Every structure is written in structure tokens, then in C-alpha cells.
């Protein structure tokens, strides 16, 4: 028996106050994830519950941004205008799946000290890792595409800025991230939280203005068998489920949880996982509120007035105030869209850096890494806007969601595999029930995304 194995057995008998046993996945990597902000946020010891909550709060809200980006707005608006409140149940189920998968991503980062990209690079062959990197970069570019276009549309609606110039202005988020990370990662989290709160406030006022049917909202939480008999309802339901969990969010979450300087003991890791779960649950439930509010707004405004084919963001903006007779309604809608788009570009650019560093170990200046990530999204958006104008943006956003659906399983399956493996997670590996549940959710997501792609290609063919 090797000395390393003997040492590991001795440590297995230790109590929870000793350091974790050495293993390939509990040793820190040579270059940590997001090195410039790694373990820069202190976690006080010997303090009360609420001080701990405050210390760990932040990563969940950065991740939640991806669940309320402009790409999700189109499906929520289409679902609400077409089927009123009946798809709220689908939003709720999507949110529960998201909480599960983001929890697994956080556990992977906390225990192994590696983000998902680093874990894939160490486990898979170079060829497989390069393929996964390429797929992930395409997904991030597709997600950025929807966010860039959403921000450009909001700038156009609010200030009359041409879409092409609006797309170019979104590149300024590169400078914002550089400045905020230089000031400290907490500053970046604070800006994101302020933008999320602005979105929430706008939609809270929207809900008050549209005066929805509260009884119908309550009934929307009950699943309806019509989903399986109405093809259009099924298509939108699958679109909502398929577009909810963003692949880059799994990479992002597994990295940014490592910004906390936690104790590397079993008890310290359990504490970190518990408070990160709380942070993620609160943040993702807030994202569920935003998505449900968009759907409810569309149902109470468009569906109520017989407008069941409102799918474009611009149409929703121009129709909202005339239907309600309140000019403020469209303004709040556009402000929330701008905050959503800018928030999403901030976190999307950060995810691009994590994926490039984790898979390739490329050493580039931070501004150059982020500029490359941003240009990958901006160039297709500029070409589309220049050729087709505002009418091409809706099709491009839908196309970006299809690309995301294609890539999602390539992030979910490795995540479930790694977090279920005791050789990598030790005593923190998924329990049997959690392992079964995770694989079931991964299978459901893969199946639904496959079906969504089939329906999308059929619709394009006709």
C-alpha cells in the first residue's frame, strides 16, 4: 500500500476540525479560478447567522442575472400573451431545476477549488476538452447575442439611439468589469444587485398598474393537461424550460463561489455550501418572480385585450402604454430591459473569461480577454442589425436560444458526473437520492432541449 493511500486512510478517521485529506481534487490548482479575485472576500468567524448570510451573499445574484436576461423575455411575453397565466407552473418547475443545478455547481467549486471548466480540462482528454471549450464559447456568444441586442433595443426605445450604435455601446461593460474588479469583487456584486433591484421595482410597479387576476395567477401554479394536447402550448413550455438554465451560469457559479476566503476544513466547507445554497435559492426565486411578472404583465395586458401574437420586445413596448392608458408603463418596461441587458453582459463577459482560462490556460491581459469575448457577440449582432434592422433582432434572439439548447447538456452531464463521484468530492459527493434526482433532471433537460430543437427546425422548414 502506497504511503499516499496510508495517509488518506489515517485522515479518514479524523474529526471535522482537521484539514481535508489530500487527494487529486482537494489540492488547490496551480492557478486558481479568477485569480485576481480568488479568496478576496473575507468570511468572519464566530459571528451570528445574519453576518454569515451577508458574507456569503452575492454569487447567487450574479448567477440569477442569467435567468432574467432578454432572451427569456421573449418566451415569457409569448407565453403570457398567448396562454394567459397557465404557464406559471412551467416557470416554477424551471426554477426548481435551476436551483438544483446551480447548487451542484457551487458545491463543485467549494469542495474541489476548481470551476467546471478546470474540472473538465483535468478529467477529459485534450481533444474532448477543446470540443467542450468550443461548444461553451459558442453558447456564451449566443447568450451574449441576446443580451447585446436586448440592451441595444432598450437604448433605442429610451433614447432613440440607433441599434447599431447601441450594440457598440454595450462593449463598454468590459471597462466597467475591469474597474469594478480592481476596486474589489464586492463592488461588482453590488452593482449587479442594484440593477436587479431596479428590475424588480419596475416590474412590481408594472404588476400594480396592470391589475392582474389574482385567482387566475393562483390557478397558473397548477399543471394543466392541455400542455400535452396543445402543440403551441407545448412548444412555448419547452422553450421556457429549455432556455431557463444557461450553460455559462454553471461555469460562472463554480468559479465565483471561490471568491470567499472560507476555512478549508470539512466543517468550513459544509458551512460554505449551506450559506451558498441559501444565497442561490433566494436569488433564483427572485429571478422566478421577475420571469413570472413578465408573463403576468403580458397576460393581463395583451391576452386580456385579445392580442395573442405579441412576441417581439419592441411590440410589447409600443403596445403596453396605449392599452393601459399609462405612459409610465412602457418607460418602466424599457428601463427594466436595459438593466437586464447590461446585467447579463457583465456576467456573460465574466463567464467568458472563466471558460477561456479554465479550458485553455491562456494567459492574456484581462482587458484583451474580455474584449475578445465581447467582440464574438457584437460582430454578428452588428451584421444582423445592419442587414435586417429591428425586424431581424427577434429571429436572432430566438436563434441564440436554440444554440444555448444545443450546448446545455454538455455542461450539465459533466457537472452531475463530477459532483456524484466520491473520488473527486470525497464525503461531499452527492447522496444516492440527490444523484438520482440530478440525473433525472439532466435527462429531462436533454430530452426537452432535443424536442425544442426538432420543433424549431420544423417551424423554420415550413
By CATH's scheme, which homologous superfamily applies?
Answer: Amino acid/polyamine transporter I
Count of helical regions: 20
Strand order of the largest sheet: 1-2
The CATH class turns out to be: Mainly Alpha
Which CATH architecture is right? Up-down Bundle
Number of domains: 1
CATH topology: Amino acid/polyamine transporter I
- Topology as a string of helices (H) and strands (E): HEHHHHHHHHHHHHEHHHHHHH
Low-confidence stretches: 6-18
Number of strands: 2
Q: In whole angstroms, how far apart are the ends?
A: 66 Å
Overall spatial form = globular
The overall pLDDT, averaged over residues, is 82
Which range best describes the helical content: under 10%, 10-25%, 25-40%, 40-55%, 55-70% or over 70%? Answer: over 70%
- The percent range for strand residues is under 5%
Helix and strand content put the structural class at mainly alpha
Describe the main β-sheet briefly. Answer: 2 strands, parallel
Radius of gyration: 22 Å
